[in-house]
Amino acid sequence: MQEKKHKLSDYQLKIIDKVKNQKQSEEKGNFLILEQSKQKFIFESDITPTSKLLLIYFLSKLDFNHRHLYIHASYAIIEKETTIIKSTIMRSIKELDKKGLIKLLSGKNRAENTLIKEFIFNQKQHIHDNQNQTNIVEMTPFFEQFFKGAK
């Protein structure tokens, strides 16, 4: 029987290439550079200030090499690193997902999330190792909206 693996869609690969090309022309070092166009896009988005902060936090957590646009984030780690309380994080993530700025892949789909985690970490994951699976946030929707709407 052939083992299932997560694979990026052609669309995701296209968005990643756009991000890489933009980063190559603007990057000055190995740290997050939130270009003025992305800042403006985020600040002008019709979302709460906390959601804007969380969106910036997610962008800072992206794989620097843009091998993928996923973030593996537990509420506890987000809470510790941003000092935003869990209930507010949950509301903000729901808002970002509803507005189409992120795609939340919660612990509900354990099999799919396990495949994505194997892809992210490049090591075998076991579905039953963690009963409270952490969230996976896909940032492709943010870049899709950014490339369509940023001036």
CATH architecture level-2 label:
Orthogonal Bundle
Q: What is the fold-level CATH name, i.e. the topology?
A: Arc Repressor Mutant, subunit A
Beta-strand share of residues: 5-15%
Listing every helix as H and every strand as E from the N terminus to the C terminus, the arrangement reads HHHEHHEHEH
SS-based class: mainly alpha
The coarse silhouette is globular
Biggest sheet strand order reads 1-3-2
Number of strands: 3
Query: Can you tell me the residue ranges where pLDDT is under 50 for at least 5 consecutive residues?
Result: none
| Overall pLDDT score | 80
Total helical elements: 7
Your description of this structure?
The chain is globular. It is 53% helix and 7% strand. With 151 residues, the chain is mainly alpha-helical. The chain has helices spanning 10-26, 36-43, 49-60, 75-82, 86-98, 110-121, 140-149, and strands at residues 70-73, 103-105, 135-138. The chain has a single domain (10-20, 35-149), classed as Orthogonal Bundle (Arc Repressor Mutant, subunit A), CATH 1.10.10. The mean pLDDT is 80. The longest helix is centred in the N-terminal third of the chain and has 17 residues, at 10-26. 20% of the residues are buried.
